[in-house]
Fold:
Amino acid sequence: MTNRFPSIYDDETVYSWFCRYLISSGIWREHEIAKELFVNSTNVISKLFIGNINKDTENNIEKVISIENLLKHHTMFYVYTGYCSNDYANEFLYNLKTDCYKTELNIRRPRSENRQLKYCPMCIIEDRKKYGEAYWHNIHQIRMLPICPIHKCKLHNSEIRYIGYGRVREKLSPLEMMNLNSDVEYNTNEMLDKIVEYAIDRYYKQDIKDIGIDYLSIRKENWGLRSNIISFYKKHGINFCGREIDSMVYDNRKNFYTMSAIYYYLKICH
Structure:
């Protein structure tokens, strides 16, 4: 590898970290990026996890942070295991460590889903004061999360889109090089604040598995749960799609934000 990886910032995505490393090393072109970091020349940087990194990259990462800690605290690992059993979470972590690329490909997601990297304008100000530069935060990338958990202001979508299992097709895009929207729009919906607080509390306490999983599984045959949840949140000015609720309760798909809303409903209404 060209240089040593820099220190990784608090809650920084691996994508952001790789961008900072590559740019400081003068590496921009796709084939150069692939040669520097990945196993194959066609591999691209993953937004969700760490991608198909080669052995040299893995060894250099370990000089800064262990692969396990990188996966746990700088990727979407907790988002995909937050409402699963400990056995599943441990197996998922093992699979990511042994073959991250294949494990990413096997994650179920909506086929047509097209997402954008998000950012908080207030976090940008604070990051620049603390680190001298802004960066992509991991927590902001939770699917459907509408507001920053710290500042309670609306998250802005960036120009950076990713598809499939998290591949970013655009050129390297550190947050500092983006056309950023500095407008701050604070959330005024107290119920939305409570859902987000519950979700983030769950996110940061992944070693604590509560009875919510069993509590929800008992209600798998309760088809009234869907309409009750939708009606409850609609009264508080929050709209959830019925199909999204169904896929969480009656299927094996886990959207972290939606699951958090379901569990919060169960907590306060049952």
User: Anything to note?
Assistant: The chain has twelve helices and three strands.
